[in-house]
Design a protein that fits this description.
The chain has 471 residues and is an alpha/beta fold. It folds into 3 domains: 247 residues, HUPs (Rossmann fold); 118 residues, Anticodon-binding domain of a subclass of class I aminoacyl-tRNA synthetases (Four Helix Bundle (Hemerythrin (Met), subunit A), Up-down Bundle); 47 residues. Helix content is 44%, strand content 17%. The strands form 6 sheets. It has a 5-stranded parallel beta sheet with strand order 7-4-3-12-13, sandwiched between helices. It has a 4-stranded antiparallel beta sheet with strand order 8-9-10-11. Strands 15-14-16 form a 3-stranded mixed beta sheet, with helices on one face. Helix 6 links the parallel strand 12 and strand 13. It binds adenosine monophosphate and zinc ion.
């Protein structure tokens, strides 16, 4: 497979460090709010990458952190702590906020068929790892103590900017209003490894350390968590493009200075989901979540389908009109799959191999998901029996994650079920009974139930209201 590597700015043949196994690390969410559908675009595309590597036969070990401490409003280590901001907003503790939004994140992921990584590690669980790394960086002169905090000294590096083909907008460090320059820093790009002094004294979570009671910087968590679970080298590190600088740049700086050798081979960055007014971001306050899409009547998988139709290295503009089109196309796709007959012949291995070859050649070229979707549509046009087509769809869907087979089965069953009987008089009586119950007139409600029972009609109460059937 050829994969674009942000670190070398070229498409390279993907070869893992250790044969057969891929060590993959993903920057997880900062759990101070719901994930917006922009964040989830990154996780969907990373999920496709993981699933495709598995499809190719690799054994993947994927680790994700949960940022529950240390991520300040500006990625340049200034501003308010995002978790504290969330806790204040909702009058809860930081840990309550972290639990609530971590659960919400994985519930959204499940709706989008994003597999939970093999290891999910909250940043607050690995303080010893960070202290170990920072101690060595202090001992070897890569870090210094100033004004109560420990900083990484970027002037000690031969090369700091590793992803320097991004334009200024991509490298935007985040919210900058009201951000004061940190005079403790020796160099503009130095970053905090350990805080004991920050602008806010009411930091909720603090730990003892050789440099005083405090808390870790945001960048150190990903190096610490990755090394804890994946060891001293990494095949692929993923994240949204805004993470490339300064977050990933700083991760490389501290990890390689600590290890004394190269750390990660491939850097996989997903470009942003934008609205017509710019990048979708949590700090802007208003953003779309999976629940909001559901409330508007969309299937979360239609959003996944929408994301798959564009390449991960291109910015994607989101509008509800675009999503309407994706939902319509998704519904049609399911209807076409439902029209295939599962019992029609046995799968023709030769044709199946040809269909799969188109699919893999699309994804082998830097994960071209839109061409992979074209390969999926080609299945319907193939001159072969339905069993072969269904086998190809099931195979592709282990990567695409669109639940096509399950949804097609449901639709086939629904189409086969006899239509519900309608009777105006009985439905009128059910409405009268509902009104009686609402008015707490249970005697009247029971009278209607008994009257219908005498006619051989049973009322079934469901969360969607009362239904009826003839006995
Ligand atoms: P956060 O929860 O802010 O730490 O972000 C979680 C992930 O979403 C990171 O990998 C970000 O780079 C990514 N991300 C943030 N905004 C967007 C966006 N508008 N489109 C795509 N990915 C994003
Ligand atoms: Zn990270």
């Amino acid at each position: 497979m050829k994969l674009y590597n942000s670190a070398t700015r070229t498409k390279e043949e993907f070869v893992p460090n250790h044969p057969g196994i891929v060590k993959m690390y993903t920057c997880g969410p900062t759990v101070y709010h719901y994930a917006h559908i922009g964040n989830l675009r990154s996780y969907i595309m990373e999920d496709v990458l993981e699933k495709y590597l598995r499809y190719l036969g690799y054994n993947v070990k994927r680790v994700m952190n949960i940022t529950d401490v240390g991520h300040l409003s500006s990625d340049a280590d200034t501003g308010e702590d995002k978790m504290l901001k969330g806790a204040k907003r909702e009058h809860k503790t930081v840990m309550e906020i972290a639990k609530f939004y971590t659960d919400a994140f994985f519930s959204d992921c499940a709706k989008l068929d994003i597999k939970t990584p093999d290891v999910v590690e909250p940043a607050t669980h690995c303080i010893d790892e960070y202290i170990k790394i920072i101690t060595k960086l202090m001992d070897t002169g890569y870090a210094y103590f100033a004004g109560g905090n420990v900083y990484f000294d970027t002037s000690k590096l031969e090369r700091y900017y590793v992803f320097n083909d991004f334009d200024a907008e991509d490298l935007d460090v985040g919210v900058r209003e009201g951000v004061e320059e940190d005079l403790n820093k020796r160099n503009k790009n130095d970053f905090v490894l350990w805080f004991t002094k920050s602008k806010f004294e009411d930091q909720a979570l603090k730990w003892d350390s050789p440099w005083g009671v405090g808390y870790p910087g945001w960048h150190i968590e990903c190096s610490g968590i990755s090394m804890k679970h994946l060891g001293e080298d990494l095949d692929i590190h993923c994240g949204g493009i805004d993470n490339a600088f300064p977050h990933h740049t700083n991760e490389i700086a501290q990890s390689e200075s600590y290890l004394g050798h190269k750390w990660c081979n491939f850097w996989f960055h997903v470009y942003h989901l934008n609205t017509n007014s710019g990048k979708m971001s949590k700090s802007k306050g208003e953003f779309l979540t999976v629940s909001l899409l559901e409330q508007k009547g969309y299937d979360p998988l239609a959003y996944r389908f929408f994301c798959l139709q564009s390449h991960y290295r291109k910015s994607l503009v989101f509008t509800l009109e675009n999503l309407d089109n994706a939902q319509t196309a998704y519904d049609k796709l399911i209807a076409r799959a439902a029209a295939l007959k599962p019992g029609d012949g046995v799968a023709d291995e030769g044709v199946l191999a040809e269909l799969k070859a188109k699919f893999t050649s699309a994804l082998d070229n830097d994960l071209n998901t839109s061409l992979a979707v074209t390969a999926l549509y080609d299945v319907f046009k193939a001159k072969t029996n339905d069993a072969t087509k269904l086998a190809a769809i099931a195979s592709f869907d282990t990567v695409l994650g669109l639940s096509i087979i399950e949804k097609a089965d449901e639709l086939r069953k629904k189409n086969a079920a006899p239509a519900e009987e309608h009777d105006e008089r009985i439905e009128g009586l059910l409405a009268e009974r509902a009104a009686a119950k609402k008015a707490k007139n249970y005697a009247e409600a029971d009278r209607i139930r008994d009257m219908l029972a005498a006619e051989g009609v049973t009322i079934i109460d469901t969360p969607q209201g009362a239904k009826w059937k003839r006995n």
